[in-house]
Amino acid sequence: MKRVTIYSILFLIGISFLVTIFGCGGKEKSQNETAVGNWMQMRNRAYILLITNPKGEWNSSVRIADVTSKIVKAKGTAKGTWHIENGQMIFTVAESNVEEIWEPTATTFFDIVELNDTTMQLREESGHIVVWKKTKAKKKAEVEVDLAPIVPMGPVAVNLNKNRSNDKDRYLCLNMNLVFKELMPDQEIPLIHPKAHEAAIIFLSSLVFNDVKDFEDLKKQSKKLVDVLNPYMEGFIKEITIEHVIVATEIDKVEEFLIEHTLTEEAVPEEGEKEEGK
Fold this sequence. Notes:
The protein has two domains: about 30-135, Lipocalin; about 150-260. The strands form two sheets. It has an eight-stranded antiparallel barrel. The chain has a three-stranded antiparallel sheet with strand order 9-10-11. It has helices at about 1-25, 30-35, 195-205, 215-230, 250-260; strands at about 35-45, 45-50, 55-65, 70-85, 90-95, 105-115, 120-125, 130-135, 150-160, 170-180, 235-250. It is elongated, with a radius of gyration of 25 Å. It contains five helices and eleven strands, in the order H-H-E-E-E-E-E-E-E-E-E-E-H-H-E-H. With about 280 residues, it is α+β, with helices and mostly antiparallel strands.
């Protein structure tokens, strides 16, 4: 009886020892590791997407909703380097065409107020606290280089037209790809003409809700869009495929869609993934 009791005590001690080892063995993330990812900040009508990677590089895109048309469109981009030192997050701007957000060639020091897996609060030198929220990282769509290439056009968001003035606002949000006609082996993939994107916005914003209320209706409109865009693309477009689509009634949903589907220059590694060579 005593022997059984002794074995039971030893067994419980062993279990407690293992729990202690595994409970304390998890490596806590450093601030540098926690700061890597996709972050979003709202500022008036503009929202700013910030992507920080493990190499100490960052890039940012700024989008803004127009007051009159409510079309959410790109405002500009910036990029540079970042690092954390002595409780501060330091950004150096290498290139920027949004000077009011990222001043070119500037180096800015932020005191870290809070930094975790969902929130990053940084205090500016003026004392103002900037709050960033982490968003899900999206990998950049790859361009297929073959005889019938598919080129991503990227996310587009427009305010749909109304049948009556008192109809509620609806926003059509699309993530589209251009499928080109078969090319010769030595023929270069045509670039998307700058006016093609503008023509797409004008066409889509002329539609009403009944034109896009279901996917079959949307497919019919995508065929018409091919005819609209082909004059700018020398007739190369075979069809337009739609990867994701929503019809939203709130501008917040539009912003979330654009953030989620905005293409980034470099995919942020998912948690647990390792870079090549490491």
